[in-house]
Amino acid sequence: MKVSMMNTAIAKGRLSLFACLGALSVLSVLLLSGPALADERWSTSEYDVTYQEDRGNTAIWTYGDDEVLGTIFIDGLGGVFTGRTDYLGYWTQETSSLRCDTFREGADGEPTYYWGQFHITFLDADFPSRWYADFGLCDRKPSIHLDATPITGEMP
Q1: What does 5-60 look like in DSSP terms, one character per residue?
Q2: Which of 13, 21, 26, 122 has its CA 20 to 30 A from that of 97?
Q3: pLDDT tens digit string along 101-120?
């Protein structure tokens, strides 16, 4: 009986130890994982752009000033905060000047026929970084150019 109680106490102690280690692991990932996504904001001549979240290796950005006008999906940028270079993606909106023949995933996960290509080049390798992007309508060659500068020291 004493051995059984001792084994139970040891098992509970191990469980508590593993629970503590697990909690510390999660906390360290949260504290050491780079800048908070919503801290990355940029200003362009058209609107402000905000890094919202990552879905796997895809970065999800939104754009608009007072309200969100659209979403940008950038492949390969998710979780990358240093050594940034060139990336390809696409933008989506609820409506646009041209309805595409094909659809892409929109901000809500539903198909949208209002989208276009988006090619971004970071000018500075690390956060915060300036960037420029070329984008277009549907699968047409990008023909619109944007330059962006980081918005720092402001509350979103």
Answers
A1: HHHHHHHHHHHHHHHHHHHHHHHHHHHHS-S-GGG-EEE-SS-EEEEEEEETTEEE
A2: 122
A3: 999 999 999 999 999 999 99
Dmax (CA) of the chain: 79
Residue 14: phi and psi, rounded to 5, are: -65, -40
Nearest partner of 144 among 37, 59, 55, 70, judged by Cα = 70
| Cα Rg of the chain (Å, integer) | 22
Which tokens in the block code for residue 109? 């996960």
**Location of structure tokens 């360290």:** 28
Residue in 134, 152, 151 with CA at minimum distance from that of residue 143? 134
| pTM, rounded to two decimals | 0.74
> What span, in angstroms and rounded, lies between the C-alpha atoms of 92 and 73?
8
Whether residue 1 contacts residue 111, with contact meaning beta carbons closer than 8 Å, is answered with no
Q: Cα 121–69–88 angle (5° rounding)?
A: 25
For 2, residues 6+ apart whose C-beta sits below 8 A from its C-beta are none
pLDDT tens for 72-94 read: 999 999 999 899 999 999 999 99
